[in-house]
Write a structure and sequence with these properties.
By secondary structure, this protein is mainly beta. The chain has a domain of 587 residues: TonB-dependent receptor, beta-barrel domain (Maltoporin, Chain A). Helix content is 8%, strand content 48%. It is built from 13 helices and 45 strands. The chain has a 22-stranded antiparallel barrel. It has a four-stranded mixed sheet with strand order 2-1-4-3, with no helix packed on it. A hairpin with a 2-residue loop joins strand 14 and strand 15. The protein is elongated.
């Protein structure tokens, strides 16, 4: 950890090849999501099975969830006292507890720390647009002949600058579109990569999209009187009307022509955040059989991020008497018998569409239509532990833990839909030149302020303030609480087989998880474009008992040693009843050179608070009505399901460790693993629901509601179900070799992972994802191969490291062929990093790092408009896999006394 000097512990862990797509404020994952309270979270996802299937422990003890979706924020852990990080990548529920389906991340603290240490460091990108800082300190001392000890630590991180996608040259606004030359019988692919993708149904100054025809047209007929204003756009401060070249249109997006590329440019590659963590620990040994300790943690994270703009894709009605409508347009409408126009707008007319400079959240907070969320997350955790020796090699341990997290999130620049609709309907007060809302003519005290959406920079601050939420008006508060009471006893039985005595550990635990969300009345009434936060209260308790045995079977016989590890755990959930987990493992030291190991286990993950109790989150968006093929405004409604049951996994692993006597200091380990997860909890996205309905899957059509105007699509419902299964298998490799060289030592290390299979089954259909990383793949995948290799030379107080990170080639979609896309392959990439440190004195050390030394740009990972608006709003890259920032530097100083 000290060598790599990462911004956070999470960044260090995520370099392990066994770690899949994980959220981090430093890679932008989750940056566009302002509804789940996930901004600023620092998480780990082992085996690409999901963050919630990785159990995170703090010194072997559970930590309260950081939001209602069950994620644990590693950013609240004080880095100065972390002695090591134990990562178990096999099924571990029986030994460690539920949720350890893909493994355990256990952060071990140095509770014997003595002295003082501190560090200060600063980092930045090669463009000097991502400055970040970290300060940490720890102090510890013993007293009363070292029977007592007091330790304190503090850590502060600050990353105040956000990097937006338009700040990087690799962002060419590339996506996939339907190939105009494609037919079912020729050699052309269905989709092609195209740069400079934009919206086909909206512009910053406003795009006239309808009506298409001036008279009614029978089904299948042609329009005899097309609208002469259709696909004209308003530009400039005076709403000048000019033609809009739509280019190649593919659903909601278009390529070429006049389509704007503004929205992908405001995609966050990083998050603006700061984190403070404080830790205190005190212990005292009253007797050999009784030692007591108290541990207190406080963590606070503040973060800010923006969502996608509140785009209206051709569904804003402008009446012929609108006060902001240019007179020339009005006269054309009157001459053609039109009473209204349909307008598509990005709702960003006060943000310059030609801006090439750096954006800021402060700018967005005062804009129309770009919601910005500020999130404050506070952790308060206390643990009281007692334990001691019982004689011989027996010992006991018990602890009580209470942890609380409060997440307060407020949203600015979020449009109130009803106010927006009233404000855009602006007219002249009869007999005057005063512009007012039409609603004000009949309700003079309604406070409506007219909003001009036609042209650039024409929305007044007063109109924006009226349409948007007031500071503090739109909010959610998540309160989470975890209490744990656990006890265990461990020792050896004093009998066993001739190979040795049996070691045993057994214990019990009671845990309570509680979560509550409160939100403002407007959110509950779904009046906003986004951030219609639900309210809910949920609580469940868990009772567990476990037994673990270590049984020596052979010693100095056929093999040098052979032992059996067996563990069993009974878990009783108040929500879903009893479930059992178990593990069997064999380890054999065959000879001085070879050690063999293997395990089989049954593991579980229980549904989290959000999956069980969410009353429903509503988000305003748009989708294509399957009945009319028209783009309409809809609500996406995601709720919980109290009937969920625990997921159950079977895990197998077998491995070999080779440490040849003829090559000292050489170690090679190879481990094969296989995980089969059944009854997996899965919630299909609204875009996927719509796609499957269009494919004729009736059960998904049942999740659509048609209560809009003229029976149009109005809502798409989703909820989690035990409807899927996951399978993955692969191999982990680790090689270590150290060589004396001159007056120092050269240490070589390689850690790698290769995934043979990663797949999900839903309702009898198998979706493969190993090496498939595009958004069009039904299941999010990860490159098959990831390897990290390093060479460290250390002499005295000086250390130099050269590190290479290799990410193998991938595909956009697993089963696409040349008939599907012009280029399905995502190329492999390798990064080179440097690390160096030098001890100036016994107390002072200087260090520095360079990541991505050669400034390798990330590969393209484009998606199609079939994925909905996601195809347009987000950059064609996976920040959770690849480096999107470019070369970055870090320097600092460490002190120790």
């Amino acid at each position: 950890m000290q060598r790599d000097a990462k911004v956070s512990i999470g960044d260090t862990i995520r370099e392990l090849p066994a770690v899949g797509a994980s959220a981090s404020p430093n890679n932008g994952s989750g940056a566009g999501n302002i509804v789940a309270g996930i901004t600023g979270l620092d998480t780990v996802n082992l085996r690409q099975l999901g963050v919630t299937r990785t159990l995170v422990l703090f010194d072997g003890q559970r930590v309260v969830q950081s939001n209602v979706t069950g994620q644990i924020d590693l950013g609240t852990i004080p880095t100065a006292l972390v002695e090591r990080i134990d990562v178990v990548t096999a099924g571990a529920s029986a030994a460690w507890g539920s949720d350890a389906v893909s493994g355990v991340v256990n952060l071990i603290l140095n509770k014997r720390f003595d002295g003082f240490r501190a560090s200060a460091e600063v980092g930045d990108s090669y463009k000097f647009d991502h400055t970040n800082y970290r300060l940490s300190a720890a102090a510890g001392t013993g007293f009363d002949d070292d029977r007592g000890r007091v330790i304190a630590a503090i850590n502060y991180m600050d990353s105040p600058e956000v990097v937006f996608a338009n700040q990087r040259s690799w962002n060419s606004y590339r996506q996939l579109i339907s190939n105009p030359a494609y037919t079912a019988t020729n050699d052309e692919p269905r989709y092609i990569h195209v740069d400079n993708i934009g919206l086909a149904q909206a512009t910053t100054g406003g795009l006239i999209t309808g009506p298409a025809c001036l008279v009614a047209v029978p089904a299948g007929g042609t329009c005899p009187s097309p609208n002469p204003l259709r696909y004209m756009q308003f530009i400039g401060p005076n709403a000048q009307l000019v033609p809009f070249d739509r280019g190649i249109v593919d659903g909601p997006i278009s390529a070429g022509g006049d389509a704007e590329q503004l929205h992908p440019s405001i995609d966050n590659l990083t998050v603006d955040y700061n984190t403070l963590s404080v830790f205190g620990y005190a212990s005292y040994e009253f007797a050999k059989w009784l030692k007591a300790s108290v541990q207190l943690n406080y963590g606070e994270t503040n973060s800010m991020n923006n969502s996608v703009p509140a785009i209206r894709q051709g569904n804003v009605t402008i009446q012929v008497d609108n006060a902001y409508l240019p007179d020339s347009v009005r006269q054309t409408m009157l001459a053609n018998g039109m009473t209204s126009l349909q307008i598509g707008t990005t709702n960003m007319n006060n943000v310059d569409p030609s801006a090439k400079g750096k954006y800021s959240h402060e700018q967005f907070r005062h804009a129309l239509g770009i919601p910005v969320a500020t999130t404050n997350r506070k952790l308060k955790r206390g643990v009281f532990t007692v334990g001691g020796d019982l004689g011989g090699d027996w010992s006991w341990n018990a602890y009580y833990q209470q942890g609380k997290v409060r997440v307060y999130q407020t949203t600015l620049s979020n449009t109130i839909n009803s106010k927006y609709n009233m404000a855009v309907d602006a007219v002249l007060r009869p007999g005057t030149t005063e512009v007012v809302c039409r609603s004000t003519l009949t309700d003079p005290t309604n406070g409506c302020v007219p909003l001009n959406i036609l042209g650039y920079g024409v929305a007044t601050p007063e109109a924006i303030a009226y349409v948007n939420v007031a500071p503090g008006e739109n909010y959610q508060i998540q309160d989470l609480e975890e209490t744990v009471l656990a006890a265990s006893i461990q020792g050896t039985l004093g009998f066993g087989l001739p190979a040795g005595d049996i070691a045993v550990a057994f214990g019990a635990e009671r845990r309570t998880e509680r979560g509550e969300i409160t939100s403002d009345a407007g959110a509950q009434a779904r009046i906003y474009s986004v951030a219609n936060f639900p309210t809910f209260f949920g609580k469940y308790n868990v009772k567990e008992a476990f037994l673990e045995l270590e049984i020596p079977l052979l010693r100095d016989s056929i093999v040098q040693s052979l032992s059996l590890n067996a563990a069993g755990r009974i878990t009783d959930y108040s929500t879903s009843g009893q479930v059992e987990t178990w593990k069997l493992g064999l380890t054999s030291q065959v000879n001085d050179d070879i050690r063999l190991r293997g395990t089989i286990s049954r593991d579980i993950r229980a549904p989290n608070l959000n999956e069980l109790f969410s009353s429903g989150l509503s988000t305003l968006g748009s989708a294509v009505d399957p009945n009319t093929n028209q783009n309409v405004q809809i609500f996406s409604f995601a709720s919980g399901n109290p009937n969920l049951t625990p997921e159950i996994a079977k895990t197998y692993s077998v491995g070999l460790v080779f440490s040849p006597r003829w090559l000292p200091r050489f170690n090679l380990s190879v481990d094969y693993y296989s995980i089969d997860l059944q009854d997996a909890i899965f919630q299909i996205s609204t875009a996927e629901v719509l796609r499957r309905c269009n494919e004729g899957q009736a059960s998904f059509c049942d999740q659509l509601e048609f209560n809009g105007p003229a029976g149009a699509l109005s809502q798409i419902n989703t909820l989690p179900r035990n409807m899927a299964s996951y399978k993955t298998d692969g191999v982990d490799i680790q090689l270590d070799y150290s060589i004396p060289m001159g007056d120092g030592t050269l240490a070589l290390r390689t850690v790698g992972n290769y995934v043979f299979n990663l797949s999900q089954e839903q309702q009898g259909v198998v979706y493969k994802a190993a090496g498939a990383i595009g958004g069009d793949n039904p299941v999010q995948g990860f490159p098959r191969a990831r390897f990290t290799a390093s060479a460290t030379y250390k002499q005295g107080g000086t250390s130099l490291t050269l590190q290479g990170r290799f990410i193998g080639a991938a595909k956009l979609v697993y089963d696409w062929t040349a008939k599907d896309v012009d280029k399905n392959k995502v190329p492999a990439i390798a990064y080179i990093d440097l690390r160096a440190s030098h001890d100036l004195t016994d107390q002072i050390q200087l260090f520095g790092t360079v990541d991505n030394l050669f400034n390798r740009e990330p590969p393209n990972v484009a998606v199609t408009p079939l994925r909905g608006q996601t195809a347009y709003y987000f950059t064609a890259v996976r920040g959770d896999i690849y480096d999107t920032i470019g070369r970055s530097y870090r320097v600092g100083v460490r002190f120790r006394l």
